[in-house]
C-alpha cells in the first residue's frame, strides 16, 4: 500500500514580508522660516500689547496653506532662529495660530533642532 499524505502538493505559506522599519520623523517647516521673521517681530511687540490686526496682516498670509502642525513648527523654528526666549514666545505663537484660524495640535511642544 502506498503512503498516504495529508495534502497532495503541500505548499508552505510564505512568511509575511515587512518593509524597512518605520521611524517617526520630526515635523519640519516646509517654507523658509525666515519669511516668518516679520511675524515673529510682531510677536515681540505683542508681548505687552496683545494680539490683533498686526498678526492678521503680517502672520496669517504667510501661514496660509500650511497644515496646523507645519505652521506651529515654522513659528518655533523662526523664534529659535531669532534667538528669542521660547518660554515667552511659544504661548504667543500658539495664539497666533488661533488668530489665523488654526488649532495647534493638542499638547504641542516645539521639536528639538
TrEMBL record:
Q: Which CDD domains match?
A: HPS_like
Task: Describe the family membership recorded for this protein in Swiss-Prot or TrEMBL.
Answer: Belongs to the plant LTP family. PEARLI1 subfamily.
User: Could you tell me which species this protein originates from?
Assistant: Linum tenue
The protein's name in its UniProt record: Bifunctional inhibitor/plant lipid transfer protein/seed storage helical domain-containing protein
Pfam families from the xrefs? Hydrophob_seed
User: Taking every annotated instance into account, which residue ranges of this chain make up the domain Bifunctional inhibitor/plant lipid transfer protein/seed storage helical?
Assistant: 29-110
